[in-house]
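Case study.
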Amino acid sequence: MDKPYVAGIDIGGQTSKLGIVDARGTVISQTTIRTDTHSDVNLYIEDLSNALTRIADEVGGIDKLRGIGIGAPNGNYYTGTIENAVNLIWGGCNAIPFAKLMREKTGVPVALTNDANAAAVGEMTYGAARGMKNFIMITLGTGVGSGIVINGDVVYGHDGFAGELGHTTAVRNNGRLCNCGRVGCLETYTSAIGVARTAREWLEASDEPSVLREISETITSKDVYEAAAQGDALAIRVFEYTGKKLGESFAEFVAFSAPEAIVLFGGLARSGNLLLKPIEEHMNANLLPLWRNKIKIIFSQLKESDAAILGASALGWEIK
Amino acid sequence: MDKPYVAGIDIGGQTSKLGIVDARGTVISQTTIRTDTHSDVNLYIEDLSNALTRIADEVGGIDKLRGIGIGAPNGNYYTGTIENAVNLIWGGCNAIPFAKLMREKTGVPVALTNDANAAAVGEMTYGAARGMKNFIMITLGTGVGSGIVINGDVVYGHDGFAGELGHTTAVRNNGRLCNCGRVGCLETYTSAIGVARTAREWLEASDEPSVLREISETITSKDVYEAAAQGDALAIRVFEYTGKKLGESFAEFVAFSAPEAIVLFGGLARSGNLLLKPIEEHMNANLLPLWRNKIKIIFSQLKESDAAILGASALGWEIK
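After joint prediction, the assembly is written out as follows.
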Protein backbone atom coordinates (compact mmCIF):
# COMPACT_ATOMS: atom_id res chain seq x y z
CA MET A 1 0.00 0.00 0.00
CA ASP A 2 1.24 3.44 -0.90
CA LYS A 3 2.27 5.51 2.10
CA PRO A 4 2.85 9.07 0.91
CA TYR A 5 2.57 10.88 4.27
CA VAL A 6 4.23 11.17 7.65
CA ALA A 7 2.89 12.47 10.94
CA GLY A 8 4.72 14.97 13.11
CA ILE A 9 3.98 15.30 16.81
CA ASP A 10 5.47 18.04 18.97
CA ILE A 11 4.96 17.40 22.66
CA GLY A 12 5.09 20.50 24.85
CA GLY A 13 4.40 20.83 28.54
CA GLN A 14 0.90 22.26 28.06
CA THR A 15 -0.17 21.32 24.55
CA SER A 16 0.84 18.83 21.90
CA LYS A 17 0.68 19.70 18.22
CA LEU A 18 0.22 17.04 15.61
CA GLY A 19 -0.11 17.11 11.86
CA ILE A 20 0.00 15.11 8.64
CA VAL A 21 2.74 16.20 6.23
CA ASP A 22 3.56 15.33 2.63
CA ALA A 23 6.99 14.95 1.05
CA ARG A 24 7.13 18.62 0.08
CA GLY A 25 6.66 19.76 3.65
CA THR A 26 3.02 20.79 3.33
CA VAL A 27 1.03 20.34 6.51
CA ILE A 28 -2.15 18.75 5.13
CA SER A 29 -4.12 18.59 8.36
CA GLN A 30 -3.34 19.36 11.97
CA THR A 31 -4.74 19.61 15.45
CA THR A 32 -3.68 20.09 19.06
CA ILE A 33 -4.47 18.26 22.27
CA ARG A 34 -3.70 19.05 25.90
CA THR A 35 -0.59 17.41 27.33
CA ASP A 36 -1.20 18.37 30.94
CA THR A 37 -4.63 16.90 31.62
CA HIS A 38 -3.56 13.30 32.21
CA SER A 39 -1.18 12.21 34.92
CA ASP A 40 -1.10 8.74 33.33
CA VAL A 41 0.88 8.39 30.12
CA ASN A 42 -1.42 5.66 28.78
CA LEU A 43 -4.43 7.98 28.89
CA TYR A 44 -2.41 10.68 27.13
CA ILE A 45 -1.37 8.18 24.42
CA GLU A 46 -5.02 7.20 24.03
CA ASP A 47 -5.96 10.84 23.41
CA LEU A 48 -3.00 11.36 21.11
CA SER A 49 -3.68 8.36 18.91
CA ASN A 50 -7.37 9.23 18.68
CA ALA A 51 -6.45 12.74 17.52
CA LEU A 52 -3.94 11.30 15.06
CA THR A 53 -6.51 8.90 13.64
CA ARG A 54 -8.93 11.81 13.13
CA ILE A 55 -6.49 13.96 11.15
CA ALA A 56 -5.15 10.94 9.27
CA ASP A 57 -8.67 10.19 8.08
CA GLU A 58 -8.44 13.39 6.01
CA VAL A 59 -5.72 11.75 3.87
CA GLY A 60 -7.27 8.31 3.67
CA GLY A 61 -6.51 6.83 7.07
CA ILE A 62 -3.59 5.95 9.29
CA ASP A 63 -2.43 3.28 6.82
CA LYS A 64 -1.27 6.11 4.56
CA LEU A 65 1.45 7.05 7.05
CA ARG A 66 4.99 5.91 6.41
CA GLY A 67 6.08 6.90 9.88
CA ILE A 68 5.44 9.07 12.93
CA GLY A 69 8.12 11.48 14.10
CA ILE A 70 7.92 12.83 17.63
CA GLY A 71 9.78 15.76 19.19
CA ALA A 72 9.60 15.64 22.98
CA PRO A 73 11.53 17.07 25.94
CA ASN A 74 14.35 14.66 26.87
CA GLY A 75 13.42 12.36 24.03
CA ASN A 76 16.06 9.69 23.42
CA TYR A 77 16.40 8.71 19.77
CA TYR A 78 18.17 5.44 20.42
CA THR A 79 15.75 4.02 22.97
CA GLY A 80 12.57 5.85 21.97
CA THR A 81 12.09 6.77 25.60
CA ILE A 82 11.27 10.04 27.34
CA GLU A 83 13.48 10.32 30.42
CA ASN A 84 13.31 12.66 33.42
CA ALA A 85 10.99 15.07 31.63
CA VAL A 86 9.95 17.09 34.67
CA ASN A 87 7.90 19.51 32.54
CA LEU A 88 5.56 16.75 31.40
CA ILE A 89 2.89 15.95 33.97
CA TRP A 90 3.04 12.24 33.08
CA GLY A 91 6.84 12.40 32.67
CA GLY A 92 8.17 11.67 36.13
CA CYS A 93 11.61 10.27 36.74
CA ASN A 94 11.39 6.96 34.93
CA ALA A 95 12.13 6.28 31.30
CA ILE A 96 8.80 6.05 29.50
CA PRO A 97 8.96 3.80 26.40
CA PHE A 98 6.97 6.35 24.45
CA ALA A 99 7.87 5.31 20.90
CA LYS A 100 7.02 1.70 21.67
CA LEU A 101 3.69 2.60 23.29
CA MET A 102 2.74 4.81 20.35
CA ARG A 103 3.74 2.20 17.81
CA GLU A 104 1.68 -0.47 19.58
CA LYS A 105 -1.30 1.88 19.66
CA THR A 106 -1.13 2.96 16.01
CA GLY A 107 0.70 0.20 14.15
CA VAL A 108 2.89 2.83 12.49
CA PRO A 109 6.73 3.01 12.88
CA VAL A 110 7.76 5.74 15.31
CA ALA A 111 10.97 7.77 15.73
CA LEU A 112 11.43 10.10 18.68
CA THR A 113 13.99 12.72 19.66
CA ASN A 114 14.08 16.05 21.45
CA ASP A 115 12.51 19.12 19.90
CA ALA A 116 15.75 20.82 18.86
CA ASN A 117 17.02 17.73 17.07
CA ALA A 118 13.65 17.44 15.37
CA ALA A 119 13.94 21.07 14.29
CA ALA A 120 17.35 20.33 12.75
CA VAL A 121 15.96 17.42 10.74
CA GLY A 122 13.02 19.61 9.70
CA GLU A 123 15.32 22.39 8.51
CA MET A 124 17.45 19.88 6.58
CA THR A 125 14.39 18.26 4.99
CA TYR A 126 12.20 21.26 4.21
CA GLY A 127 13.97 24.48 5.23
CA ALA A 128 17.09 26.65 5.21
CA ALA A 129 19.50 23.72 5.57
CA ARG A 130 18.34 21.78 2.50
CA GLY A 131 21.42 20.33 0.83
CA MET A 132 23.64 20.95 3.84
CA LYS A 133 25.50 18.04 5.42
CA ASN A 134 27.09 19.96 8.31
CA PHE A 135 25.24 22.59 10.29
CA ILE A 136 24.11 23.45 13.80
CA MET A 137 20.54 24.36 14.65
CA ILE A 138 20.10 26.71 17.60
CA THR A 139 16.57 27.17 18.95
CA LEU A 140 16.10 30.40 20.87
CA GLY A 141 12.91 30.00 22.85
CA THR A 142 12.03 29.80 26.53
CA GLY A 143 15.26 27.82 26.69
CA VAL A 144 18.11 27.40 24.22
CA GLY A 145 18.22 24.07 22.40
CA SER A 146 20.47 22.69 19.71
CA GLY A 147 20.57 20.04 17.03
CA ILE A 148 23.93 19.23 15.49
CA VAL A 149 24.15 17.70 12.02
CA ILE A 150 27.39 16.11 10.86
CA ASN A 151 27.69 14.31 7.52
CA GLY A 152 23.93 14.58 7.10
CA ASP A 153 23.08 12.89 10.39
CA VAL A 154 21.91 14.34 13.68
CA VAL A 155 24.51 13.77 16.40
CA TYR A 156 22.91 11.73 19.19
CA GLY A 157 26.14 10.75 20.92
CA HIS A 158 26.90 7.69 22.96
CA ASP A 159 23.69 7.85 24.97
CA GLY A 160 21.18 9.65 22.74
CA PHE A 161 21.46 13.02 24.52
CA ALA A 162 24.18 14.88 22.58
CA GLY A 163 23.69 18.49 21.52
CA GLU A 164 22.95 20.34 24.75
CA LEU A 165 24.66 23.54 23.62
CA GLY A 166 22.30 25.72 25.66
CA HIS A 167 24.05 24.24 28.66
CA THR A 168 27.59 25.15 27.68
CA THR A 169 29.20 27.92 29.70
CA ALA A 170 28.78 31.48 28.45
CA VAL A 171 30.00 33.09 31.69
CA ARG A 172 32.50 31.14 33.78
CA ASN A 173 32.74 33.32 36.90
CA ASN A 174 29.68 34.61 38.77
CA GLY A 175 27.40 33.50 35.98
CA ARG A 176 23.65 33.20 36.27
CA LEU A 177 22.21 30.11 37.95
CA CYS A 178 20.48 27.86 35.42
CA ASN A 179 17.44 25.63 36.00
CA CYS A 180 19.70 22.68 35.20
CA GLY A 181 21.77 23.36 38.31
CA ARG A 182 24.82 24.64 36.42
CA VAL A 183 26.07 28.21 36.51
CA GLY A 184 26.58 30.55 33.54
CA CYS A 185 24.77 28.44 30.93
CA LEU A 186 24.32 30.07 27.52
CA GLU A 187 20.57 29.55 27.99
CA THR A 188 20.46 31.87 31.00
CA TYR A 189 21.71 34.75 28.83
CA THR A 190 20.27 34.13 25.39
CA SER A 191 16.88 32.50 25.83
CA ALA A 192 13.78 34.69 25.73
CA ILE A 193 13.80 34.59 29.52
CA GLY A 194 17.51 35.45 29.59
CA VAL A 195 17.00 38.50 27.38
CA ALA A 196 14.21 39.79 29.61
CA ARG A 197 16.36 39.16 32.67
CA THR A 198 19.28 41.12 31.20
CA ALA A 199 16.94 44.06 30.56
CA ARG A 200 15.51 43.94 34.09
CA GLU A 201 18.96 43.72 35.67
CA TRP A 202 20.24 46.66 33.66
CA LEU A 203 17.18 48.76 34.44
CA GLU A 204 17.71 48.13 38.14
CA ALA A 205 21.41 48.89 37.95
CA SER A 206 21.10 52.39 36.49
CA ASP A 207 18.78 55.35 36.00
CA GLU A 208 19.23 55.37 32.24
CA PRO A 209 16.00 56.37 30.54
CA SER A 210 14.26 53.60 28.62
CA VAL A 211 10.73 52.91 27.41
CA LEU A 212 11.11 49.57 29.20
CA ARG A 213 11.17 51.26 32.58
CA GLU A 214 7.37 51.46 32.83
CA ILE A 215 6.96 47.69 32.47
CA SER A 216 10.09 46.67 34.30
CA GLU A 217 8.50 43.91 36.40
CA THR A 218 6.65 42.10 33.65
CA ILE A 219 9.08 42.71 30.83
CA THR A 220 9.38 40.03 28.10
CA SER A 221 11.87 39.54 25.29
CA LYS A 222 9.17 40.78 22.92
CA ASP A 223 9.00 44.06 24.83
CA VAL A 224 12.79 44.37 24.58
CA TYR A 225 12.63 43.70 20.85
CA GLU A 226 9.93 46.30 20.29
CA ALA A 227 11.81 48.88 22.34
CA ALA A 228 15.02 48.18 20.41
CA ALA A 229 13.18 48.40 17.10
CA GLN A 230 12.00 51.85 18.18
CA GLY A 231 15.59 52.90 18.91
CA ASP A 232 15.63 52.54 22.69
CA ALA A 233 19.36 52.61 23.53
CA LEU A 234 19.23 50.27 26.51
CA ALA A 235 17.13 47.71 24.62
CA ILE A 236 19.53 47.83 21.67
CA ARG A 237 22.44 47.17 24.04
CA VAL A 238 20.57 44.18 25.48
CA PHE A 239 20.48 42.68 21.99
CA GLU A 240 24.14 43.51 21.43
CA TYR A 241 25.00 41.75 24.68
CA THR A 242 22.83 38.76 23.80
CA GLY A 243 24.42 38.57 20.35
CA LYS A 244 27.89 38.82 21.87
CA LYS A 245 27.23 35.86 24.15
CA LEU A 246 25.83 33.85 21.24
CA GLY A 247 28.69 34.83 18.92
CA GLU A 248 31.36 33.91 21.46
CA SER A 249 29.72 30.53 22.00
CA PHE A 250 29.21 29.91 18.29
CA ALA A 251 32.97 30.31 17.79
CA GLU A 252 33.46 27.42 20.23
CA PHE A 253 30.91 25.29 18.39
CA VAL A 254 32.63 25.93 15.05
CA ALA A 255 35.96 24.74 16.50
CA PHE A 256 34.19 21.49 17.28
CA SER A 257 32.40 20.55 14.07
CA ALA A 258 33.31 23.17 11.44
CA PRO A 259 29.73 23.55 10.19
CA GLU A 260 28.77 25.26 6.95
CA ALA A 261 26.16 27.31 8.80
CA ILE A 262 24.48 27.92 12.10
CA VAL A 263 20.71 28.12 11.72
CA LEU A 264 18.68 30.19 14.20
CA PHE A 265 15.12 29.32 15.06
CA GLY A 266 12.53 30.57 17.54
CA GLY A 267 11.00 33.81 18.67
CA LEU A 268 14.27 35.67 19.16
CA ALA A 269 15.43 34.70 15.67
CA ARG A 270 12.81 37.15 14.40
CA SER A 271 14.91 40.02 15.75
CA GLY A 272 16.88 40.09 12.49
CA ASN A 273 19.91 42.35 12.35
CA LEU A 274 19.50 43.46 15.97
CA LEU A 275 20.78 40.03 16.90
CA LEU A 276 22.56 38.95 13.71
CA LYS A 277 25.10 41.78 13.56
CA PRO A 278 26.54 41.32 17.07
CA ILE A 279 26.51 37.52 16.63
CA GLU A 280 28.56 37.78 13.44
CA GLU A 281 30.93 40.36 14.90
CA HIS A 282 31.74 38.41 18.04
CA MET A 283 31.77 35.00 16.39
CA ASN A 284 34.30 36.15 13.81
CA ALA A 285 36.42 37.91 16.44
CA ASN A 286 36.69 34.60 18.30
CA LEU A 287 37.18 32.19 15.41
CA LEU A 288 40.49 30.77 14.26
CA PRO A 289 41.62 32.71 11.17
CA LEU A 290 40.82 29.79 8.86
CA TRP A 291 37.09 30.13 9.61
CA ARG A 292 36.80 33.92 9.90
CA ASN A 293 33.97 35.34 7.76
CA LYS A 294 33.30 31.90 6.30
CA ILE A 295 30.60 30.48 8.58
CA LYS A 296 27.07 31.49 7.66
CA ILE A 297 24.52 32.54 10.28
CA ILE A 298 21.06 32.07 8.79
CA PHE A 299 17.48 32.08 9.96
CA SER A 300 15.08 29.16 9.81
CA GLN A 301 12.88 29.13 6.71
CA LEU A 302 10.09 27.11 8.27
CA LYS A 303 6.85 28.92 8.94
CA GLU A 304 6.76 29.23 12.70
CA SER A 305 3.21 27.96 13.11
CA ASP A 306 4.13 24.78 11.19
CA ALA A 307 7.72 24.38 12.31
CA ALA A 308 7.22 22.16 15.32
CA ILE A 309 5.09 19.70 13.35
CA LEU A 310 7.37 19.83 10.31
CA GLY A 311 10.47 19.23 12.41
CA ALA A 312 9.00 16.20 14.12
CA SER A 313 7.44 14.90 10.90
CA ALA A 314 10.79 14.95 9.09
CA LEU A 315 11.98 12.18 11.41
CA GLY A 316 9.19 10.05 10.01
CA TRP A 317 10.85 9.91 6.58
CA GLU A 318 14.11 8.75 8.12
CA ILE A 319 12.79 5.57 9.73
CA LYS A 320 14.64 2.68 8.11
CA MET B 1 47.94 -9.64 -5.05
CA ASP B 2 47.61 -9.88 -1.30
CA LYS B 3 48.15 -6.56 0.49
CA PRO B 4 48.41 -7.31 4.21
CA TYR B 5 50.16 -4.09 5.33
CA VAL B 6 49.69 -0.36 5.54
CA ALA B 7 52.23 2.42 5.91
CA GLY B 8 51.96 5.20 8.47
CA ILE B 9 53.77 8.50 8.01
CA ASP B 10 53.87 11.19 10.70
CA ILE B 11 55.16 14.48 9.39
CA GLY B 12 56.64 16.77 12.03
CA GLY B 13 58.40 20.09 11.61
CA GLN B 14 61.86 18.61 12.04
CA THR B 15 61.57 14.89 11.39
CA SER B 16 59.15 12.54 9.71
CA LYS B 17 58.55 9.06 11.06
CA LEU B 18 57.38 6.27 8.80
CA GLY B 19 56.67 2.63 9.35
CA ILE B 20 55.04 -0.51 7.96
CA VAL B 21 52.21 -1.86 10.13
CA ASP B 22 50.19 -5.08 10.07
CA ALA B 23 46.52 -5.53 10.90
CA ARG B 24 47.25 -6.21 14.56
CA GLY B 25 49.04 -2.90 14.97
CA THR B 26 52.58 -4.26 15.00
CA VAL B 27 55.12 -1.88 13.53
CA ILE B 28 57.12 -4.28 11.34
CA SER B 29 59.78 -1.85 10.15
CA GLN B 30 60.32 1.85 10.56
CA THR B 31 62.66 4.73 9.89
CA THR B 32 62.84 8.52 10.09
CA ILE B 33 63.89 11.22 7.65
CA ARG B 34 64.44 14.94 8.07
CA THR B 35 61.50 17.17 7.17
CA ASP B 36 63.36 20.45 7.34
CA THR B 37 66.22 19.94 4.89
CA HIS B 38 64.29 20.63 1.68
CA SER B 39 62.54 23.87 0.91
CA ASP B 40 60.93 22.20 -2.12
CA VAL B 41 58.15 19.73 -1.42
CA ASN B 42 59.00 17.58 -4.43
CA LEU B 43 62.49 16.89 -3.10
CA TYR B 44 61.00 16.03 0.29
CA ILE B 45 58.53 13.63 -1.36
CA GLU B 46 61.43 12.05 -3.27
CA ASP B 47 63.24 11.40 0.03
CA LEU B 48 60.07 10.16 1.70
CA SER B 49 59.14 7.68 -1.01
CA ASN B 50 62.70 6.36 -1.18
CA ALA B 51 62.65 5.77 2.57
CA LEU B 52 59.21 4.13 2.28
CA THR B 53 60.41 1.83 -0.49
CA ARG B 54 63.37 0.75 1.68
CA ILE B 55 61.26 -0.22 4.70
CA ALA B 56 58.58 -1.76 2.49
CA ASP B 57 61.22 -4.05 0.97
CA GLU B 58 61.42 -5.74 4.37
CA VAL B 59 57.85 -7.01 3.93
CA GLY B 60 58.15 -7.91 0.25
CA GLY B 61 57.96 -4.52 -1.45
CA ILE B 62 55.64 -1.57 -1.80
CA ASP B 63 53.06 -3.72 -3.63
CA LYS B 64 52.26 -5.32 -0.28
CA LEU B 65 50.78 -2.04 0.97
CA ARG B 66 47.02 -1.61 0.97
CA GLY B 67 47.31 2.10 1.68
CA ILE B 68 49.41 4.89 3.10
CA GLY B 69 48.08 7.00 5.97
CA ILE B 70 49.65 10.37 6.65
CA GLY B 71 49.32 12.60 9.70
CA ALA B 72 50.50 16.13 8.98
CA PRO B 73 50.00 19.62 10.42
CA ASN B 74 46.96 21.25 8.79
CA GLY B 75 46.30 18.13 6.76
CA ASN B 76 42.89 18.22 5.06
CA TYR B 77 41.25 14.81 4.80
CA TYR B 78 38.80 15.81 2.07
CA THR B 79 41.28 17.37 -0.33
CA GLY B 80 44.46 15.53 0.68
CA THR B 81 46.20 18.88 0.87
CA ILE B 82 48.44 20.47 3.48
CA GLU B 83 47.39 24.09 3.88
CA ASN B 84 49.09 27.02 5.62
CA ALA B 85 51.46 24.74 7.51
CA VAL B 86 53.88 27.41 8.68
CA ASN B 87 55.91 24.91 10.72
CA LEU B 88 56.85 22.91 7.62
CA ILE B 89 59.75 24.49 5.74
CA TRP B 90 58.21 23.48 2.41
CA GLY B 91 54.69 24.28 3.65
CA GLY B 92 54.23 27.94 2.82
CA CYS B 93 50.82 29.48 2.37
CA ASN B 94 49.49 27.50 -0.55
CA ALA B 95 47.59 24.26 -0.44
CA ILE B 96 50.05 21.49 -1.32
CA PRO B 97 48.33 18.47 -2.94
CA PHE B 98 50.38 16.16 -0.78
CA ALA B 99 48.26 13.00 -0.98
CA LYS B 100 48.12 13.26 -4.77
CA LEU B 101 51.88 13.79 -5.08
CA MET B 102 52.59 10.86 -2.80
CA ARG B 103 50.20 8.60 -4.63
CA GLU B 104 51.71 9.46 -7.99
CA LYS B 105 55.17 8.75 -6.62
CA THR B 106 54.34 5.41 -4.99
CA GLY B 107 51.30 4.08 -6.83
CA VAL B 108 49.66 3.34 -3.45
CA PRO B 109 46.35 4.91 -2.28
CA VAL B 110 46.93 7.71 0.24
CA ALA B 111 44.77 9.23 3.00
CA LEU B 112 45.90 12.30 4.89
CA THR B 113 44.68 14.18 7.95
CA ASN B 114 46.12 16.11 10.86
CA ASP B 115 48.07 14.33 13.58
CA ALA B 116 45.35 14.47 16.25
CA ASN B 117 42.74 12.98 13.93
CA ALA B 118 45.24 10.29 12.97
CA ALA B 119 45.80 9.59 16.66
CA ALA B 120 42.04 9.14 17.13
CA VAL B 121 41.83 6.62 14.30
CA GLY B 122 44.89 4.85 15.70
CA GLU B 123 43.32 4.60 19.14
CA MET B 124 40.09 3.29 17.64
CA THR B 125 41.92 0.73 15.50
CA TYR B 126 44.62 -0.52 17.86
CA GLY B 127 44.29 1.20 21.25
CA ALA B 128 42.14 2.28 24.16
CA ALA B 129 39.14 3.19 22.00
CA ARG B 130 38.72 -0.20 20.29
CA GLY B 131 35.00 -0.91 20.04
CA MET B 132 34.01 2.68 20.80
CA LYS B 133 31.87 4.59 18.32
CA ASN B 134 31.81 7.93 20.15
CA PHE B 135 34.88 9.38 21.84
CA ILE B 136 37.14 12.41 21.81
CA MET B 137 40.91 12.16 21.56
CA ILE B 138 42.86 14.96 23.22
CA THR B 139 46.58 15.17 22.49
CA LEU B 140 48.53 17.04 25.15
CA GLY B 141 51.87 17.90 23.59
CA THR B 142 53.63 21.11 22.60
CA GLY B 143 50.13 22.14 21.59
CA VAL B 144 46.72 20.68 22.35
CA GLY B 145 45.09 18.77 19.48
CA SER B 146 41.86 16.85 19.20
CA GLY B 147 40.21 14.19 17.12
CA ILE B 148 36.48 13.72 17.50
CA VAL B 149 34.83 10.42 16.63
CA ILE B 150 31.06 10.23 16.20
CA ASN B 151 29.30 7.05 15.09
CA GLY B 152 32.68 5.51 14.35
CA ASP B 153 33.86 8.26 12.00
CA VAL B 154 36.29 11.11 12.58
CA VAL B 155 34.51 14.46 12.36
CA TYR B 156 36.10 16.49 9.58
CA GLY B 157 33.36 19.08 9.28
CA HIS B 158 32.28 21.09 6.30
CA ASP B 159 35.81 22.00 5.26
CA GLY B 160 38.02 19.20 6.58
CA PHE B 161 39.30 21.16 9.59
CA ALA B 162 36.87 20.29 12.40
CA GLY B 163 38.14 19.33 15.83
CA GLU B 164 40.28 22.26 16.93
CA LEU B 165 39.41 21.90 20.60
CA GLY B 166 42.81 23.23 21.71
CA HIS B 167 41.57 26.54 20.36
CA THR B 168 38.38 26.77 22.35
CA THR B 169 38.33 29.32 25.12
CA ALA B 170 39.46 28.22 28.58
CA VAL B 171 39.74 31.77 29.96
CA ARG B 172 37.45 34.42 28.51
CA ASN B 173 38.78 37.59 30.18
CA ASN B 174 42.48 38.48 30.28
CA GLY B 175 43.42 35.05 28.98
CA ARG B 176 46.83 34.13 27.62
CA LEU B 177 47.63 35.11 24.05
CA CYS B 178 47.82 32.04 21.80
CA ASN B 179 50.06 31.53 18.76
CA CYS B 180 46.87 31.30 16.70
CA GLY B 181 46.06 34.94 17.46
CA ARG B 182 43.16 34.17 19.81
CA VAL B 183 43.14 34.84 23.54
CA GLY B 184 42.58 32.32 26.32
CA CYS B 185 42.84 29.15 24.20
CA LEU B 186 42.82 25.86 26.14
CA GLU B 187 46.19 25.12 24.54
CA THR B 188 47.85 28.08 26.27
CA TYR B 189 46.99 26.58 29.66
CA THR B 190 47.14 22.83 29.18
CA SER B 191 49.86 22.10 26.62
CA ALA B 192 53.32 21.16 27.87
CA ILE B 193 54.33 24.76 27.22
CA GLY B 194 51.25 26.03 29.05
CA VAL B 195 52.02 23.95 32.13
CA ALA B 196 55.59 25.28 32.26
CA ARG B 197 54.28 28.80 31.81
CA THR B 198 51.83 28.43 34.70
CA ALA B 199 54.68 27.26 36.93
CA ARG B 200 56.93 30.17 35.90
CA GLU B 201 54.16 32.72 36.42
CA TRP B 202 53.34 31.37 39.88
CA LEU B 203 57.00 31.29 40.91
CA GLU B 204 57.35 34.92 39.92
CA ALA B 205 54.16 35.94 41.69
CA SER B 206 55.13 34.66 45.15
CA ASP B 207 58.02 33.63 47.37
CA GLU B 208 56.54 30.22 48.07
CA PRO B 209 59.34 27.64 48.37
CA SER B 210 59.53 25.14 45.52
CA VAL B 211 62.16 22.86 44.07
CA LEU B 212 61.30 24.46 40.75
CA ARG B 213 62.70 27.79 41.89
CA GLU B 214 66.29 26.86 40.99
CA ILE B 215 65.40 26.18 37.34
CA SER B 216 62.74 28.82 36.96
CA GLU B 217 63.93 30.17 33.60
CA THR B 218 64.30 26.88 31.74
CA ILE B 219 61.48 25.01 33.42
CA THR B 220 59.63 22.35 31.38
CA SER B 221 56.42 20.44 32.00
CA LYS B 222 58.59 17.42 32.79
CA ASP B 223 60.30 19.38 35.57
CA VAL B 224 56.89 20.32 36.96
CA TYR B 225 55.78 16.69 36.83
CA GLU B 226 58.90 15.47 38.63
CA ALA B 227 58.55 18.16 41.30
CA ALA B 228 54.89 17.28 41.80
CA ALA B 229 55.69 13.56 41.99
CA GLN B 230 58.15 14.41 44.79
CA GLY B 231 55.42 16.28 46.66
CA ASP B 232 56.31 19.87 45.78
CA ALA B 233 53.17 21.82 46.77
CA LEU B 234 53.39 24.47 44.06
CA ALA B 235 53.98 21.90 41.32
CA ILE B 236 51.03 19.83 42.54
CA ARG B 237 48.83 22.95 42.38
CA VAL B 238 50.01 23.57 38.80
CA PHE B 239 48.67 20.14 37.87
CA GLU B 240 45.44 20.80 39.76
CA TYR B 241 45.02 24.05 37.84
CA THR B 242 45.82 22.38 34.51
CA GLY B 243 43.36 19.58 35.28
CA LYS B 244 40.71 22.11 36.26
CA LYS B 245 41.02 23.90 32.94
CA LEU B 246 40.86 20.59 31.07
CA GLY B 247 37.93 19.34 33.14
CA GLU B 248 35.92 22.53 32.63
CA SER B 249 36.51 22.35 28.89
CA PHE B 250 35.75 18.63 28.70
CA ALA B 251 32.31 19.35 30.21
CA GLU B 252 31.66 21.64 27.24
CA PHE B 253 32.80 18.99 24.78
CA VAL B 254 30.52 16.40 26.36
CA ALA B 255 27.52 18.74 25.95
CA PHE B 256 28.32 18.74 22.25
CA SER B 257 28.78 15.10 21.34
CA ALA B 258 28.03 13.01 24.47
CA PRO B 259 31.05 10.73 24.01
CA GLU B 260 31.55 7.45 25.83
CA ALA B 261 35.07 8.53 26.78
CA ILE B 262 37.72 11.18 26.41
CA VAL B 263 41.11 9.65 25.61
CA LEU B 264 44.27 11.50 26.64
CA PHE B 265 47.48 11.16 24.69
CA GLY B 266 50.92 12.78 24.78
CA GLY B 267 53.63 13.56 27.28
CA LEU B 268 51.35 15.14 29.89
CA ALA B 269 49.04 12.13 29.80
CA ARG B 270 51.85 10.26 31.58
CA SER B 271 51.17 12.36 34.69
CA GLY B 272 48.51 9.86 35.78
CA ASN B 273 46.41 10.79 38.79
CA LEU B 274 48.13 14.17 39.21
CA LEU B 275 46.16 15.26 36.16
CA LEU B 276 43.33 12.71 36.10
CA LYS B 277 41.86 13.51 39.52
CA PRO B 278 41.38 17.27 38.97
CA ILE B 279 40.10 16.63 35.43
CA GLU B 280 37.43 14.25 36.71
CA GLU B 281 36.51 16.52 39.61
CA HIS B 282 36.02 19.65 37.52
CA MET B 283 34.48 17.91 34.52
CA ASN B 284 31.82 16.31 36.72
CA ALA B 285 31.19 19.56 38.59
CA ASN B 286 30.42 21.23 35.24
CA LEU B 287 28.42 18.49 33.52
CA LEU B 288 24.66 18.35 33.27
CA PRO B 289 23.36 15.87 35.88
CA LEU B 290 22.55 13.27 33.22
CA TRP B 291 26.26 12.85 32.40
CA ARG B 292 27.77 13.23 35.87
CA ASN B 293 30.20 10.41 36.75
CA LYS B 294 29.31 8.63 33.51
CA ILE B 295 31.96 9.88 31.05
CA LYS B 296 35.25 7.97 31.17
CA ILE B 297 38.60 9.72 31.06
CA ILE B 298 41.19 7.21 29.89
CA PHE B 299 44.78 7.21 28.72
CA SER B 300 46.02 6.16 25.31
CA GLN B 301 47.12 2.53 25.13
CA LEU B 302 49.48 3.02 22.21
CA LYS B 303 53.19 2.74 22.92
CA GLU B 304 54.39 6.30 22.64
CA SER B 305 57.35 5.50 20.37
CA ASP B 306 55.00 3.79 17.89
CA ALA B 307 51.92 5.94 18.35
CA ALA B 308 52.54 8.52 15.64
CA ILE B 309 53.17 5.83 13.02
CA LEU B 310 50.27 3.67 14.25
CA GLY B 311 47.86 6.60 14.21
CA ALA B 312 48.73 7.56 10.67
CA SER B 313 48.82 3.96 9.50
CA ALA B 314 45.30 3.30 10.75
CA LEU B 315 44.01 5.70 8.10
CA GLY B 316 45.50 3.37 5.52
CA TRP B 317 42.98 0.63 6.37
CA GLU B 318 40.07 3.03 5.94
CA ILE B 319 40.74 3.96 2.32
CA LYS B 320 37.72 2.81 0.33
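Observations recorded in class. The two ends of chain B are 17 Å apart (CA to CA). Chain B touches chain A through 42 residues (CB under 8 Å). We will return to this complex in the next lecture.
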